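Continuing the batch. This is chain 6 of the set; chains 1 through 5 are on the previous pages. Same settings as before, nothing changed between runs. Recording input and output for traceability.
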Amino acid sequence: MRHKIRQLFEKNGLDAIIIRSFPHTTDPNFAYFAGLSTHIFHNNWLIIEKNKKPLLLCSTLEQVSQKDKKRLRVVTVSSNDAVTRILEKKIKNKKIGIPLAFYPYSSLIKLKRVLKPKRIVDVAKAIGKIRSTKTKEEIKKIKTACNITEEILAKVPDMVRVGRTEKDISIELLYEARKGGAEKLAFPTIVAFGKNAAIPHHQTSLTKIRKGNYLLVDFGVKFAHYSSDISRTFFVGKPTEEQEWNYWLVHFAKQKAFQAIQPGVPAKKVFQIANKILKKGFGKPLPHALGHGLGIEEHDWPQRIGPAEEWKFEPNQVFALEPAIYVKNKFGIRIEDDCLVTKTEAKWLSKAPKELVRI
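Output for chain 6:
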């Protein structure tokens, strides 16, 4: 990663990169570059300079571990004036990079007015490119998150009883996540029964579970800042042959798309493989992107595997593949698994059962 950061500085002629955690939002790049082993709260600064350890400015309320202090230059500041004095030396009349997607406009205007940088360059996409390929350590963390998630999802059949609600299941999943070693959930869990599963981003509700339809669970956790994103579709009761076929078809589309992934293959080609299978077997095209990057964010870089995406797969990228079929007011089936691109092929980090699991 260091050589990529050095290239970023050289290509853009930067003196420093500034990343902030704000009171109401934290740039995921903060976690990516700081890599803190302990939780840190909002309103801190991370200053990255060429060939130097990142500089972390944090308040007296924070506790930074000795392990993190070996990788970072940590300065504890007790006032905004103290922050300004340090930043002036780093920013004034300098060319700095900021990932602007997570930087509020009002804060940017204030930074320009108070600290007077020579020029500001938006480095969001450039950093996204760096984040798109993972190190061995990052892959290990994602794999651990996947393992925790799969172990918990395997318990879903024991959680489901007729009369329980979607929220009952989601609460139990949260409990199991914390109990199982997860840092937190990667995103709000989706538990969708019956016709609710036809809404891709259904808001988990008080709908009661009963026999005779699919139950979709979209669930992921964070482990050491890194995400998993896995979806499982179950059937409550005894499915018909058609209902089993629908599940198998989605699983087959996912597997064929997965088998096509290797370095140099365009993303749109992999999308087209899954889309063709679903159109031929179900009569409807894939209703959303086939998948997305996975890492610090649950939707990481590259951000989508879609019909118009020209970018090509590279070694050490991690993706979630999520083919699906939805029938409005009736049902939805989504099977989502995470995979790693190697030098020659893709390898599963999680793996859904081939047969529809009955509850």
